Amino acid sequence: MSLKHSYTLIAPFYDAMLSSALASVRAQNLRHLPAREQTVLINGIGTGLDLPHLPPENRYIGLDLTAAMLRRATPRRGTLDLSLVQGNSLALPFNDGHFDQVVMHLILAVVPDSAQALREAARVLKPGGGMLIFDKFLRPGQSAPLRRAFNLIFRQLATRLDVVFEDVLAQAPGLQLEWDTPQMANGWFRAIKLVKS
Ligand SMILES: C[S@@+](CC[C@H](N)C(=O)[O-])C[C@H]1O[C@@H](n2cnc3c(N)ncnc32)[C@H](O)[C@@H]1O
């Protein structure tokens, strides 16, 4: 089953599973977005759970692979300046340096090639632009046998469980780590800010 197919099936249940559990972490992470007419990509926007936490001063493009997820994001836009685009985070349909900021909540560990997704996000970011990441990552050398075992199933259905952020970052040159904060589940989930040099 492809991720597009599985997220089409997951879409009706996604908010019930994740909405309240992650609301405060989303709000906290998105407080780091500048609010001054910037162009912001919400990469892998899903059902739009980030939208209520976004400062209204910016222009937003929300991208996702799955039409069923995007349909659920539409009514959440409110008065935001938001365009929704169906597309692939591994080959973003935008020019180099198009965005001032990129938000990547629960997408980097979802896609089959995290390093390619990070390189693509960096490509469409302007020099000096920021990237806000929130996802679950293993630490270098962490064995995590259960997560690695379940990864064999989960990576096909919803998300990878074996992504080591430091390995991904090493394959995306030109990005500087600004901060990396453990958030939930004993630091498995991390909020990370990168800046393009
Ligand atoms: C775990 S959800 C996260 C959604 C949202 N960012 C959030 O924080 O709730 C992962 C999303 O990534 C999307 N997705 C999966 N593979 C993708 C790809 N290659 N390009 C763009 N979106 C993708 C899925 O359709 C799904 O909406």
Write a short abstract of this structure.
The protein is an alpha/beta fold and 197 residues long. The protein is built from five helices and seven strands, in the order αββαββαβααββ. Strands 3-2-1-4-5-7-6 form a seven-stranded mixed β-sheet.
Supply the key terms.
197 residues, alpha/beta, 5 helices, 7 strands, 32% helix, 27% strand, binds S-adenosylmethionine
Give an overview in words:
The chain is built from five helices and seven strands, in the order H-E-E-H-E-E-H-E-H-H-E-E. It has helices spanning 3-30, 67-73, 114-123, 145-157, 165-170; strands spanning 39-43, 59-64, 81-86, 99-105, 125-136, 175-184, 189-196. Strands 3-2-1-4-5-7-6 form a seven-stranded mixed β-sheet. It starts with a helix and ends with a strand. It binds S-adenosylmethionine.
Distance between the termini: 38 Å
Give the percentage of residues in beta strands.
25-35%
Helical amount among residues, as a percent range? 25-40%
Please count the helical segments.
5
Spell out which ligands are present: S-adenosylmethionine
SS content category:
alpha/beta
Q: What's the overall average pLDDT, rounded?
A: 95
Catalogue the unreliable spans. none
Task: Summarize the SSE layout with pairings.
Blueprint: H1 3-30, E1 39-43, E2 59-64, H2 67-73, E3 81-86, E4 99-105, H3 114-123, E5 125-136, H4 145-157, H5 165-170, E6 175-184, E7 189-196
Parallel strand pairs: 1-2, 1-4, 2-3, 4-5
Antiparallel strand pairs: 5-7, 6-7
Bound molecules: S-adenosylmethionine.
